[in-house]
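Deliverable D2.4 — example input (structure tokens):
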């Protein structure tokens, strides 16, 4: 990009939200007969790198049913308004029109029928070109400055692009190797925005002490209810899904979903000088200690391992034997030989196991960022800044993070659509 290039709209960041904003900004300008150019600027060598690695390289585009209850961070009422503007049906139709058919899996996740994330990214890049917009990369934006009613976007090398409106879609801090290193927060603050007091990894694996017995079961997966309890024992959040045991601790969908709630509660407890929250695992979802204790009393000659691996419970044998050992129980002994104390210990290990969390694997392994620019600082109909007119924000830079399963992509599509359309209509309003 040559110094002094002028465009109507500059989109900073060409990830999921930025590409969506670029497409709809250009389409909307064209529909209104406003003319003008839309330019997306991205510092990465490969735009949309996070799309390519999502969903194990298959790209979980969205979920069949999305509402505001799947998100944390800013006001759910505000999140609902953004999602309502471009929902799942609109997402499916948008990608179908680009030649990308989506299929629904048993979990409710929607993937491209090709099972290739490249299909999704290529379609978005084509849509940008067909809409008449351009992407320039690698072109790292160092700062965005106000200039009259417009902006000057300055690269790390000193190149400058003038724009009447800017869409900030830089992402957060998760997976920094894809280009989202948190610099967007610096740009947002320089233009008058604030940030939440905490910005931390979400959808991230949690770590346990290396000598904790679960770390010796690397590769074992099992359904479990994962629960965060406050120091008083109050349930703060809970998810039931597959849990993966690893050499470093815990991963899998249930753990990833609970991670932001545990980390947020832990940070809050530290700030208040209180005891940390507890992470409790129930490997027999729906059962209580009392119910399991009663079932163990009726084992007779059957063994505890046979009970834990049997119908209706179905734990992997390695996990069953490890839980018995942790409770001080001989898993191969007949059930009638269990003392009341050992029986209760096994019941607690199976359905109320406290995992001594030491931390998380950080932004390098997090799928999304929790925290960011408060949604209260934008007008959710257009994603336009309330503190810097002409600036629009979308995607992960905002204080919105969703559960695993396509929810964060749906936020990117919905907020990117609103920002792109809003910026284009804003340009037309400036012309008038």
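Example output (designed residues):
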């Amino acid at each position: 990009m040559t110094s002094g290039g002028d465009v109507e709209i500059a989109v900073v960041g060409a990830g999921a939200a930025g590409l969506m904003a670029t497409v709809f900004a250009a389409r909307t300008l064209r529909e209104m007969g406003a003319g003008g150019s839309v330019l997306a600027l991205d510092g990465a060598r490969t735009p949309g790198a996070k799309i390519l690695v999502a969903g194990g390289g298959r790209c979980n585009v969205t979920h069949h049913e999305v509402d505001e209850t799947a998100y944390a961070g800013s006001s759910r009422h505000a999140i609902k308004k953004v999602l309502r503007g471009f929902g799942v049906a609109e997402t499916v139709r948008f990608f179908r029109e680009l030649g990308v058919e989506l299929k629904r899996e048993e979990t409710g996740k929607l993937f491209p029928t090709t099972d290739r994330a490249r299909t999704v990214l290529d379609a978005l890049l084509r849509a940008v070109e067909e809409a008449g917009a351009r992407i320039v990369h690698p072109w790292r934006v160092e700062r965005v400055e106000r200039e009259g009613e417009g902006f000057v976007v300055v690269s790390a090398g000193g190149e400058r692009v003038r724009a009447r409106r800017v869409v900030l879609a830089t992402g957060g801090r998760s997976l920094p190797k894809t280009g989202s290193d948190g610099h967007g927060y610096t740009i947002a603050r320089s233009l008058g925005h604030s940030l939440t007091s905490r910005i931390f990894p979400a959808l991230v694996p949690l770590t346990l002490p290396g000598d904790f017995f679960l770390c010796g079961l690397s590769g074992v997966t099992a359904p479990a209810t994962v629960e965060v309890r406050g120091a008083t024992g109050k349930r703060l959040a809970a998810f039931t899904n597959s849990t993966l045991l690893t050499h470093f601790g815990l991963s899998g969908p249930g753990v990833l979903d609970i991670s932001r709630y545990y980390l947020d509660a832990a940070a809050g407890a530290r700030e208040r000088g209180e005891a940390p929250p507890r992470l409790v695992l129930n490997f027999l979802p729906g059962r209580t200690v009392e119910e399991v204790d009663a079932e163990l009393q009726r084992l007779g000659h059957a063994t505890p391992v046979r009970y834990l691996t049997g119908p209706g419970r179905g734990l992997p044998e390695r996990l069953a034997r490890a839980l018995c050992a942790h409770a001080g129980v001989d898993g191969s002994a007949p059930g009638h030989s269990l003392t009341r104390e050992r029986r209760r210990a096994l019941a607690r290990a199976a359905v109320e196991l406290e995992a001594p969390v030491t931390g998380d694997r950080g932004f390098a392994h997090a799928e999304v960022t929790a925290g960011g620019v408060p949604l209260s600082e934008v007008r959710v109909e257009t994603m336009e800044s309330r503190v810097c007119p002409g600036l629009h924000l979308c995607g992960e830079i905002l204080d919105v993070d969703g559960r695993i399963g396509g929810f964060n992509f749906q936020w990117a599509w919905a907020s990117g659509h609103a920002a792109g359309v809003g910026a284009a209509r804003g340009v037309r309003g400036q012309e008038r």
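The domain at 206-360 is CATH 2.40.30.10 (Elongation Factor Tu (Ef-tu); domain 3).
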